[in-house]
Amino acid sequence: MNNYNNIKCDYVGTTEETKPCGTYEGYDFPAVLRWFAERVDRIILLFDAHKLEISDEFSEAIGSLRGNEDKLRVVLNKADMVGTQQLMRIYGALMWSLGKVFNTPEVLRVYIGSFWSEPLLVPDNRRLFELEEEDLFSDIQNLPHNAALRKLNDLVKRARLVRVHAYIISYLKKEMPTFRKDNKKKNLIYQLPVIFSKIQLQHHISAGDFPDCAKMQEQLLIHDFTKFKPMKPSLMAALDELLASDIAKLMPLLRQEEIDAGVQPGVQGGAFLGTRAGPFVENDPFGEVENGGEDGEDGGEMAWVVTKDKPKYDEIFYNLAPNEGKLSGTKAKDWMVSTRLPNSVLGRIWKLSDVDRDGMLDDEEFALASHLIEVKLEGHGLPPELPARLVPPSKRRQKGSDI
User: Fold this and answer.
1) Where's the EH domain (predicted)?
2) Shortest CA distance to 353 belongs to which of 342, 364, 338?
3) Strand partners, 77
4) Beta-strand (E) ranges in 113-208?
5) Residues 6+ away with beta carbon under 8 Å from 76
6) In this predicted structure, what is the pLDDT of residue 11?
7) What is the pLDDT of residue 75?
8) Which of 309, 331, 347, 365 is the most exposed place for a label (fewest CB within 10 A)?
């Protein structure tokens, strides 16, 4: 994000206002960020806990997001690389730095965690990371659900900005004299911060409703103040009525529309598919896992790739004291968590390994889970579905008999 000339933006949309952004040199990068910020539902600022810093370029980029604080979320990533005490200090330093950049009373939501699939280096805060990840995923998944509300908030923001602009333009027009207009214009532009304060006190307007002062000063230079239109009280009264009453009447209609349409969170797939399964679901009665899904193609006589390592996996399996040849979700989870892999990864491994979907692991399923854990620890990815060569032999026979 710090290298302005090497950023490539691929913006995909279906509305007329969306436009592609390629790789350019010499363009106004903060202006590009503002353009995107006005059109997206969520903006996420990503920081690494072990190298927390806000450069001048990054600070300028963040500053261009002012006015969109309601869309902002902050992720303090790789927090497993530091201990609890140091993490608290880093969190405080981050909030102090962001407070200087945004200069607003609102506190930004910061998600603390380790949002990657590597083992946790310092597992002390594992439970905190899991809760924070769930909150972040829930926030993203609910974006389509809150789309109409966001549009209504944008309408309110624009209406309040229009009201402020009307007061500013009216003030500037009234202050213009008949003669020596150029000098007066320059003086008014120079005094614009003071004018903002006067209007704010006189009309009881929040400071957050005002436009960027420096930007407006620049834009006013090319305008003739004497040609500004005078304020129309009837239009201002209608605008005040919109903000005071009409917007409030729309809120129940939005909620009712969502209920009638049965709106559900629309962000699915990818990181939201299979990240929570089996005993890795919060408050899940271990063993009650969703039915269905592919168990892999019938492997026939194909050799099972886990066979060569099964003896060492069996030793671990029987040391965990299985009941009637199977490990409960509780026992299996305790052992799997000891690998320090994030719960999001372990949930996917559980979903792949519990082939018969009974919420427990027999010796073959446990060997499969152990194999997948080793694969992940070696830096490889996990398959979206269980390939035929990984389906345990007994599960292949069961599948064949069902057919």
Assistant:
1) 309-397
2) 364
3) 48
4) none
5) 47, 49, 90, 91, 94, 110, 111, 112, 113
6) 35
7) 92
8) 309
Measured distance CA(247)–CA(241) in Å, rounded: 9
Q: What is the pLDDT of residue 112?
A: 92
In a domain, 267, yes or no: no
Q: What one-letter code names the amino acid at 268?
A: Q
Distance CA 293, CA 319 (A): 31
Instruction: For residues 304 and 359, state if they share a domain.
Output: yes
Residues 6+ apart with CB under 8 A from 3: none
User: Shortest CA distance to 97 belongs to which of 63, 145, 135?
Assistant: 63
Indicate if 190 and 285 belong to the same structural domain: no
d(CA 95, CA 101): 10
Provide the number of structural domains found in the chain. 3
Does 152 share its domain with 140?
no
Which run of H or E residues covers position 368?
helix 363-377
Q: pTM higher than 0.85, yes or no? A: no
Same-domain status, 14 and 104: yes
For 144-251, list the strands marked E by DSSP.
none
Q: Which parts of the chain sit beneath pLDDT 50?
A: 1-24, 265, 274-278, 280-300, 399-403
The tokens of 92 are what? Answer: 């405080």
Q: Which two tokens stand for residue 250?
A: 């729309």
- Cα atoms in the Cβ-side hemisphere of radius 13 Å centred on 180: 4
Pull the structure tokens for residue 321.
Answer: 């004291």
d(CA 209, CA 162): 9
Asked whether residue 122 falls in the same domain as residue 206, the answer is: no
pLDDT score for 239: 87
Say yes or no: 140 and 159 in one domain. no
Tokens of 323: 């009941």
Domain check: are 188 and 97 in the same one? no
Query: What's the rounded Cα separation, in Å, for the pair 283 and 256?
Result: 30
Q: What is the pLDDT of residue 286?
A: 29
| pLDDT of amino acid 143 | 80
- Six token digits for residue 33: 């960020």
Question: In terms of residue numbers, what domain contains 109?
Answer: 4-145
